[in-house]
Design a protein that fits this description.
By secondary structure, the chain is of the alpha+beta class. It contains 13 helices and 19 strands.
Length: about 400
């Protein structure tokens, strides 16, 4: 019909449960949504106008399908969320001519070795690291620093898969083999383990400035329980930080982003504060974080909608700086359930959970009859609960109340 304007089109790479909020946000903006995922039953597809069945990690195939789609319908933006595929996003954007980080930057954030080398070249503070090419090279590092603890992980790992906290008491041959099997490329990196406050950050780089929406204190209270696997039990906003330390972290993230060639867009950070009170970058990711950090925790605690900001950036539209500044000062916490391994026979207490104070969201990853695996990676956790409140103490208390509501009967 004459005078009818077609809606702009946004491609979202990934259609899993954690990508659903982006689909909903895009539809609220009146956008046409193209979703991509290898799973034809992925939940995000329920909100998509078009779907492309392709692996999110297959950059070649995704680019080919996106270009093919554009022959009949233009794509105006491409993004992802809670999905470590910035290279796939950058490939699509580069092929079609859309806003994105460069292909070089995308390669750096998906290869921890390349990332750390860029940090070192640009004097960005980060823990000591070295590529591990063989079991012998791993042993040599321990011979040189016998009392040191290290983190061993695949250079292309995700979701804590293959991430091991190791020392001279660990069977190094086992650690080398176990960590290596979780990566796609087979390369490993060894990093010095820094004992200190662990933080998650979510920042938006805009016109040379870094706007850090929130800093969460990561909860690693279960390190001994799951050692040598490193399993996080959620996080809490706000982290207890001085104004000076917050400023140092913000500046460090900007410095790290520039070292990787990221000058605009979202940057997720994993930060540790050392014994001298100085922040160091463990990793940076060029995507919105998973774990409902960007979609639930940050909006509840600060009022900042980073999902909307990333959509705006992806479409090449103007970012309102005011949207990157907090409009409220509240607290949130996320925690997980860690049942023993075995077949799940019964799950009770959901009605009580729904009535628990400050409940923001919860979810179970398995149902009655499913096998609960031994917990060695983040996907092995049973489920999560997110609460909100006025301050840290309140949300930590509320999270514990919510966790206690659920009773699991698991038969080994």
């Amino acid at each position: 019909m004459e005078g009818c304007t077609l809606p702009r089109t946004l491609m979202i790479v990934g259609a899993g449960a954690e990508q659903v909020p982006a689909y909903i946000a895009a539809k609220k903006r009146g956008l046409m949504v193209v979703g991509t995922d290898l799973n034809p039953n992925a939940p995000g597809f329920a909100y998509a106008d078009h779907r492309i069945l392709v692996s999110t990690r297959d950059a070649d195939a995704t680019e080919t399908e996106a270009v093919k789609f554009c022959r009949t319908t233009p794509i105006h933006g491409v993004m992802t969320i809670a999905n470590d595929v910035p290279y796939t996003v950058a490939r699509v954007a580069n092929a079609i001519g859309l806003p994105s980080i460069s292909l070089d930057a995308a390669k750096c954030v998906t290869d921890k070795q390349l990332m750390k080398e860029r940090f070192k070249e640009n004097e960005v503070a980060c823990p000591w690291f070295s590529e591990v090419e063989s079991l012998d090279s791993l042993r040599k590092h321990f011979d040189a620093k016998p009392s040191q603890s290290f983190v061993l992980k695949p250079v292309d790992g995700r979701g804590a898969r293959g991430v091991l906290l190791i020392n001279d008491e660990i069977d190094l041959e086992w650690a080398f083999t176990d960590s290596k099997r979780w990566g796609d490329c087979g390369r490993l990196i060894l990093e010095e383990f820094i004992q200190g406050l662990q933080l998650s950050t979510e920042s938006f780089i805009h016109q040379g400035e870094c706007y850090t929406a929130a800093i969460a204190e990561r909860n690693y209270s279960r390190l001994e329980q799951f050692a040598p696997n490193i399993i996080e039990d959620g996080g809490t906003i706000p982290a207890l930080l001085s104004a000076d330390l917050k400023s140092k972290i913000n500046n460090l993230i900007l410095q790290g982003a520039r070292a990787l060639g990221i000058h605009d867009g979202i940057v997720k950070g994993d930060i540790v504060v050392d014994g001298n009170g100085e922040p160091l970058i463990i990793e940076l990711a060029a995507r919105l974080s998973g774990g409902w950090f960007a979609t639930h925790q940050i909006p509840a605690a600060t009022g900042i909608d980073l999902v909307d900001a990333v959509i705006t950036f992806s479409l090449g539209e103007k970012i309102d700086v005011k949207s990157l500044l907090p409009s409220k000062d509240r607290a949130t916490a996320i925690r997980y359930w860690f049942p023993p391994s075995g077949r799940i026979r019964n799950i009770s207490g959901e009605a009580d959970l729904k009535k628990s104070p400050g409940l923001l969201a919860f979810g179970f990853f398995r149902n009655v009859g499913d096998i609960q695996p031994e917990i060695k990676t983040h996907p092995d956790r049973f489920g999560y609960v997110i609460v909100e409140g006025g301050n840290r103490d309140e949300v930590i208390s509320r999270a514990n109340i919510a966790l206690a509501c659920i009773k699991l009967e698991v038969h080994s």
